[in-house]
Amino acid sequence: MSDAWNILNPNSPSPVQERQLAMNRRHFFGRSAKGIGGAALATLLGKDGLMAADSPVASTFAPKAKRVIYLFQNGAPTHVDLFDYKPRLHEMHGKPVPEEYLGDKRFSTMTGDPSGKLMLEPVEPFAQHGKSGAWVSEFMPHTAKVVDDLCFIKSMHSDAVNHAPAISFLLSGAQIPGRPTLGAWLNYGLGSPSEDLPGFVVMTSVSKDTSCGQIFYDFYWGSGFLPTRFQGAKFRGSKDPVLYLSNPDGMSAKLRRGLLDDLAELNHQKYAEVGDPEIQTRIAQYEMAYKMQTSVPELTDFSDEPDHVLDMYGPQVREPGTFAYNCLMARRLAERGVRYVQCMHAGWDQHNSLTTELYTQCKDTDQASAALVQDLKMRGLLDDTLVIWGGEFGRTPFIQGDINNRVRWGRDHHPYAFTVWMAGGGVKPGMTYGASDDLGFNAMENPVHVHDFQATLLHLLGINHEQLTYRFQGRYFRLTDVHGHVVNDIIG
Fold first, then answer.
1. Could you tell me the CA-to-CA distances from 120 to 140, 225, 307, 342 in Å, in that order?
2. How far apart are the C-alpha atoms of 421 and 432, rounded to whole Å?
3. What CATH number has the domain spanning 58-241+300-490?
4. How does pLDDT run across 331-368, given as a tens digit for each residue?
C-alpha cells in the first residue's frame, strides 16, 4: 500500500507512514541520546508546572490560565430571559417581529418562516447588580451576587441552528462530528499536570422531571483524529464514577502491577513493529486505570468538605449525578491538576416551557455555578482557573406557541446573538463586553464569533490558536479551522 500511495501522492506520506512518524513522549525519549535523563528532567519540570509532560506543542507564551472548567448548558439558555435585558421587548410584546431584523436569516424547522411571529417580553424582571451594574434576571439570584467576578460576553453568535451541530461547532470548531474537541486539543497541546487522574474529564447531568430530549453524544468530548488517549474520560453520575477500578477477588496489588508490566512489554513490542499510536493509548490507559484505583475513591469522598462549603453549593450537592455535585467534583478535580473539566447539563430547550421548566433549570444550576466561582476564589484557584458558563446558542426574542396561553410560552433556537459568562483565568472581572441590538436579535457591538471565542480561550492558556495544529489526511487542522481572532479587550 505504501509504494502505491507514494506513486499516486509523491509529496504526502501514506497513512501507515504518518502513524510511524507520529511523535510522542515515549518514542522521543526512547531514541534520544540522553534517554532516561531527559525523561527524568521532563518529569521534574512537569511536577513544578514548568513543562507539560505529554506536550508536543506546549505554551507559546505565558499563560494566564492553567486549567478550564466549562459549565456547558445543553439546549441553549434563553439570553433575553436571563442576562441580556432589552426594555424594548416590553414595548413590543405581542407585536409582529419587525421585518428589517429578519433579512435572510435561517431558523429551525419549528419556526420556519419567522415573518409575523409575535415578540415576547422577558418572563421575569431584571435588575442591575454589583459595582459593575450587570443586568441579571430574577431567575438567577445567586449568579447576581457574583457578577463583579464575571465577564459577560453578550455578542456571541454561531453558524449552526440546531443543537448537536451547534454544540459540536462550539466544542470542536466543526458542525460535523469527527474533529477533536477543546479538551482533547488542550490535552494534546499542553499535556496533563495530573499524574493519577485523566487530563480531560466529563460529567453530565439533567434537570429532574424535564421534558427536554437533549442527548449527550460521545463526540462532545471526543478526540477526533487525535490519538484517543487525548479524549475525555466520562465520569458516571454515581458514587462509583468509573467502573471496574477494584481488583477482582484474589488479585493482590502486587499481582496486578506485575500483570500490567508484562502487558505493557507486549504492547511496546507490538508498537515497535507497526507504529500504531493507539497501542500507546492502550498502554497509557492501563497505567491511568491502575493509578485511579487510589485517586478516584479519594476524589469522590466528600467527608473532608466542611458543611459551609457543601451548603454553599445547595442541597443537591450531596446527590451524585446532579449539576451541583458535578460542580464540586470539578473544583476537586481542578485542585488535583486536571487540565480540563466539562460539566454538561441538559434541559434548556424550552420550546414550550419558559414559564415552567425554566424555573427548575435555573434552580438546579444557578446556586452551584455561583458557588463554584466563590469556592475557587476562596482557595486562590480562580486566578488561574478559567470558568465558562453558556450554551450552544440563544433563544428567539419572538414567541414559539400561542401568546395567549402563558403556561405554554416558548422560544425557538437563535444563533444570531447569545450570552456566555467567564470568570477567572485572566479575563477581566466585572465587565460586560459586546451587545446585541435593542431586541436581542443580532450581535451588533463587538460581535464575537464561535471561532473568536475559541481563539481567546486558547490564548488565555498560552497557546497561539494558529500554531496548535495536527496533520491529518494531507492537511493541517486546528480548533479554529482557518478563522478566529483573539478578543484582547476581555483579557486582564
1. 19, 44, 42, 32
2. 9
3. 3.40.720
4. 999 999 999 999 999 999 999 999 999 999 999 999 99
